[in-house]
C-alpha cells in the first residue's frame, strides 16, 4: 500500500493527493480536469494538432478575406497571357505567381477565391448533418422502443443510397446550383453516420450513475438530455464530424469536376481542376495548384480529426 501520510500540520484533500500522484487527474490542487480539459491538455502536446490548426486558421483567413492575399480579380482574363505565361515562383503573392489558365485568368487569384466556396460547403454540410443527425440519434438512443426502431430503419434506408450517386441525381434536378443547393444535397444524404454514432454514445451515457441519480431526483427529460446525456455523448460525434468535414470538401470538388456541383460564376477548385484536364500534359501547373490546395485542406481537417480522436479516447493514448 502506498503511504499517503502527511506531515504534521499539513492538510490536503483526496483530490489533491490524487492529482499529485497523477498529473492527468487534475490541473491544480483540488481542481480535477474535465473530459474537455483533459483533451486540451493532450492536444497541446501533439505537433500534428498545431500543424493542422495553423493551416486551418490560414485557410479560414483566406476564405474570409481573400482580398488581403491577392489584388488580382479571379474572373479577369487576358488572352495574351494564356498558357504561355508559366508560374513565376519568384513573384510571391503576385497574379502571375502560379501562372495563368487557358482563359488568361490568374491561377493564384482563383485558388485564393476558390477557398471560400469549399470551406462554406464543408462547414455548412458538417453543421447540418451534426445538428440533424445528432438530434435524431439522441432521440433514438435515449427513448429506444418504437422511436428507435423507426429512426433506425430510416437510417438503414438512407445508408442504402450511394452518397455520390445520390448527390448527382439530386443536383442534376436543379438548373442553378448555388452553394446552399450543394450543401442541402450533401447534407440530405450525409447525416446517417452522425446519427448512428450519436445513438451509440447516448445509449452508453444514459446508463451512467449520474443519469440515474438525476432521474431519481426528479429531473425532467429535457434537463437530463441536454444537461447530462448530450455533453457526455458529444465527443465521438465531434471527432466524426471533424474528419467528415474534409470528406465533404472533397465530395464538392468531385461533383464540381463532373459538372454537377458548383457552376460558374462561382469559383471552385473542382471547377478549375475540370477546366484544366485538357491541358494537363503540356501545362500541368494549371491543375497542380488548385488540386494541391484541395489536398492540403482535406489533409488539415482529417489530421485535426485524428488528433481530436486520440485526445478524447483514453484507450488510444
UniProtKB/TrEMBL annotation:
It comes from Streptomyces antioxidans. Keywords: Cell membrane, Membrane, Transmembrane, Transmembrane helix, Transport. It is found in: Cell membrane. The keyword Transmembrane helix applies. This is Peptide ABC transporter permease. Residues 1-16 have a biased composition (Polar residues). One of its GO terms (cellular component) is plasma membrane. It holds the Pfam family BPD_transp_1. Residues 115-305 form the ABC transmembrane type-1 domain. Belongs to the binding-protein-dependent transport system permease family. The chain crosses the membrane at residues 48-69, 119-142, 154-174, 180-198, 233-251, 287-308. PROSITE patterns: ABC_TM1. GO terms for biological process: transmembrane transport. Residues 1-32 are annotated as: Disordered. It is a multi-pass membrane protein.
